[in-house]
């Protein structure tokens, strides 16, 4: 079996920089915002002058390296009679002597009697010697020193880069969203914005080298660039009133990024890509327990950063996509334009968006009487989850529609209900002019009745995802030998990856392979096994993934093509194979798998010549794709002997790579047991961590009792040395136990279906 790890088979690497649902801290539906962590608008700033000296290099004359001494002047209006001013500061050294507060109109100083800090809330409190009144315009001066970090990329931080001559230089960068401006200077750090007019990218998200980088990298760069540019509107021009509705920035920017991708690179199919990248992903998360409402009650900085989830991004974008469907693109665009104009340079809350949507819907006559956008939208933003629409034939003239919440842990449950737009096509009217719904299911949970002549056919929500059984989904894949569409195959790969990994070391594997192989091969043949000019954008990504699947199924179509490329390489050893970067790793792997010992020896010689660590790593990956047991043993044995040609630094990597090879998986634990002391001697300077990585790889694939027994016996035999990785061992064993249960239940049904 060729080594294809999870990272290669399923959805490509997730393109966005963002948080994960797992980081959430018990978010609750937004009732009222807890005031404890808020400044409560007792002082409204109108103007800042900020002066910061950024010291990145050793220059003792101005201050210590990696600090930023600064001064800030804040002008604003006090809102209530008080004797204190509270603002934000995080990890700043503020010189209390430097603080002055004065009435702006007269310049009259107000004595500062005391200052204090509250670390948990990032509050900096200035106590005044006398009271100030509501309406007083104040001028506050402060001097401070900020730390410039390198590690976490928040507040004021630095990055290093190389000049063309190889000189190391440093650059200072700011990242102020969500609550990080307070790390650079004292401020009223609410409704904060991103950096208006400026976009900061890490190199991975901005650089694409045609011919050197795969098309998935172009997809990533295009999406991120479009996303960040969209933030110039959603996030910068209009900021958030508060972080409980992060989706107003992130969901709207994510919705817009797909439109941008469609516009600048049509071959990447941005609008369709949104279906898999946003809609399907957010449904997976939103169907789990690990979700939260788009509008959630958050107060602490930790809770705020936990709002940057797939829900805020992808569900936010998906809801906007649904709105586009039922209002039409033109009406939605009109609404967003008026939202941006009206809320420009202010902090918005979701009601401001709903107002704009409502006005545009009314002016374009998009909603039936009695419905309004506030009610519709709230039903999607104030509760978790999404509905399954059930369709039942009530009698000969009536179809009944009702809804339940969809959950991934079993049958739909009777909780939550939504305003659901329903479109209907019938035998008499088979085409829709647009997606404006004929029927709405209401959020009160009541069912809707549709009158119809049931002697003719009727189709509900033509383009919606169906809620169907596993068997029905599998039945649907029977036609896939005729399917060449990018989004359909991406969805297929996403779901079949789980099935594939559990089956790949299981007796049911041959049945899965017999089913998949002809379908993958037919689609690959249609898209093109060999390189061609038509392989750009989404089409190139599809071809690469089909090749990846075909090769991992040992398809002759892949192996013959790979063998051909290997012959070319052997004939001209100084030039790497003529494979495009999208499919190169797959095909080099398949060369070793398809061309036996001669390819193994050839690539091993290349590995020995290679100076570059990245190239060595890539060649080792290809070597570990061998499907011959003798070559696998040869590779493993070479790790034990420093004169064998495998560099000692690479030994651990070989063990892990072999564990992700289906043939390698059958022998790796025996090899480790038989040579345990030698292996530990070679890899063990940092402890048995590489063994944890091997087990961490095996656990993705092991799904039988025999395999679990092997792991347990191996662990028991070497318990003392493996003690430091007990947590990883426990976790691997639990995962394999879970896999066995899945294979005995759902997996068994799927196996029977494949047969
Ligand atoms: Zn964003």
TrEMBL record:
SUPFAM superfamilies according to UniProt: Leukotriene A4 hydrolase N-terminal domain, Metalloproteases ('zincins'), catalytic domain
Xref: Gene3D superfamilies: 1.25.50.20, 2.60.40.1910, Neutral Protease Domain 2, tricorn interacting facor f3 domain
InterPro entries the record matches: Aminopeptidase_N-like_N, Aminopeptidase_N-like_N_sf, ERAP1-like_C_dom, M1_APN-typ, Peptidase_M1_aminopeptidases, Peptidase_M1_dom, Peptidase_M4/M1_CTD_sf
Enzyme Commission number, as recorded: 3.4.11.-
Cofactor: Zn(2+)
GO cellular component, one term: cytoplasm
UniProt keyword list: Aminopeptidase, Hydrolase, Metal-binding, Metalloprotease, Protease, Zinc
Pfam family, one: ERAP1_C
Residue span, ERAP1-like C-terminal domain: 466-719
One GO molecular-function entry: peptide binding
Domain of life: Eukaryota
Record: residues binding Zn(2+): 227, 231, 250
Active site: 228 (proton acceptor)
Alphabetical GO biological process terms: peptide catabolic process; proteolysis
Domain Peptidase M1 membrane alanine aminopeptidase: 195-380
Family: Belongs to the peptidase M1 family.
Name of the protein: Aminopeptidase
């Amino acid at each position: 079996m060729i080594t294809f790890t999870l990272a290669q088979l399923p959805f490509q690497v997730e393109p966005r920089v963002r948080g994960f649902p797992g980081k959430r801290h018990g978010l609750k539906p937004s009732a009222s915002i807890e005031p404890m962590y808020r400044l409560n608008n007792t002082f409204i700033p109108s103007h800042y002058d900020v002066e910061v000296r950024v010291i990145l290099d050793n220059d003792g004359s101005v201050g210590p390296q990696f600090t930023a001494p600064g001064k800030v002047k804040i002008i604003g209006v006090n809102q209530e009679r008080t004797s204190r001013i509270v603002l934000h500061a995080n990890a700043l050294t503020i010189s209390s002597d430097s603080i002055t507060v004065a009435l702006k109109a007269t310049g009259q100083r107000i004595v500062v009697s005391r200052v204090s800090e509250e670390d948990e809330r990032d509050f900096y409190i200035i106590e005044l010697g006398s009271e100030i009144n509501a309406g007083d315009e104040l001028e506050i001066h402060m001097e401070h020193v900020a730390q410039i970090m390198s590690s976490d990329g928040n507040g004021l931080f630095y990055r290093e880069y190389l000049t063309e001559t190889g000189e190391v230089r440093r650059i200072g960068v700011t990242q102020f969203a969500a609550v990080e401006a307070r790390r650079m200077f004292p401020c009223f750090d609410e409704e904060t914005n991103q950096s208006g007019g400026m976009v900061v990218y890490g190199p991975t998200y901005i650089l694409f080298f045609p011919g050197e980088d795969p098309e998935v990298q172009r997809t990533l760069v295009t999406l991120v660039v479009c996303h960040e540019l969209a933030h110039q509107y959603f996030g910068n021009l209009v900021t958030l009133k508060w972080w409980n509705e992060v989706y107003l920035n992130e969901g709207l920017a994510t919705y817009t990024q797909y439109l941008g991708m469609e516009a600048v690179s049509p071959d990447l199919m941005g609008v369709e890509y949104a279906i898999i990248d946003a809609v399907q992903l957010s449904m997976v998360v939103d169907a789990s327990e690990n979700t939260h409402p788009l509008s959630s009650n958050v107060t602490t900085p930790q809770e705020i950063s936990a709002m940057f989830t797939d829900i805020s991004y992808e569900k936010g974008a998906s809801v906007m996509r649904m709105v586009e469907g039922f209002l039409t693109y033109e009406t939605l665009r009109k609404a967003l334009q008026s939202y941006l104009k009206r809320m420009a340079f202010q902090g918005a809350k979701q009601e401001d968006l709903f107002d704009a949507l409502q006005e545009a819907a009314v002016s374009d006559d998009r909603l039936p009487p009695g419905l309004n956008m506030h009610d519709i939208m709230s039903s999607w933003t104030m509760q978790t989850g999404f509905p399954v629409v059930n369709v039942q034939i009530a009698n000969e003239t009536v179809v009944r529609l009702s809804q339940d919440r969809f959950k991934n842990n079993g049958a739909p449950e009777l909780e939550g209900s939504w305003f659901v737009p329903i479109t209907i096509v019938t035998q008499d009217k088979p085409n829709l002019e647009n997606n404006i719904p004929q029927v709405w299911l209401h959020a009160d949970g009541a069912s809707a009745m549709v009158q119809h002549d049931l002697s003719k056919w009727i189709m509900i929500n033509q383009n919606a995802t169906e809620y169907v059984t596993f068997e029905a989904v599998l039945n649907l894949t029977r036609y896939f030998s005729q399917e060449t569409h990018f989004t359909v195959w991406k969805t297929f790969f996403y779901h079949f990856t789980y099935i594939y990994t559990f089956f790949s070391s299981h007796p049911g594997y041959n049945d899965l392979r017999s089913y998949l192989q002809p379908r993958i091969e037919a689609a690959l043949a249609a898209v093109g096994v060999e390189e061609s000019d038509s392989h750009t954008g989404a089409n190139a990504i599809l071809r690469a993934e089909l090749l990846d699947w075909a090769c991992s199924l040992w398809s002759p179509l892949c192996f013959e093509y790979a063998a051909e490329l290997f012959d070319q390489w052997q004939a001209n050893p100084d030039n790497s194979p003529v494979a495009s970067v999208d499919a190169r790793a797959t095909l080099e792997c398949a060369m070793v798998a398809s061309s036996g010992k001669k390819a193994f020896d050839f690539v091993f010689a290349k590995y020995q010549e290679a100076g570059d660590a990245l190239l060595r790593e890539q060649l080792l990956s290809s070597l570990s794709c061998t499907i011959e047991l003798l070559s696998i043993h040869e590779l493993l044995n070479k790790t034990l002997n420093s004169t064998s040609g495998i560099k000692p630094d690479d030994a651990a990597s070989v063990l892990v790579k072999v564990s992700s090879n289906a043939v390698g998986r059958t022998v790796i634990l025996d090899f480790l047991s038989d040579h345990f002391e030698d292996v530990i001697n070679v890899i063990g300077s940092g402890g048995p961590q590489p063994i944890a990585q091997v087990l961490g790889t095996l656990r993705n694939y092991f799904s039988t009792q025999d395999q679990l027994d092997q792991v347990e016996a191996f662990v028991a035999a070497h318990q003392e040395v493996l003690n430091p990785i007990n947590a990883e061992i426990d976790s691997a064993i639990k995962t394999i136990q879970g896999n066995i249960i899945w294979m005995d239940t759902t997996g068994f049904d799927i196996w029977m279906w494949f047969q």
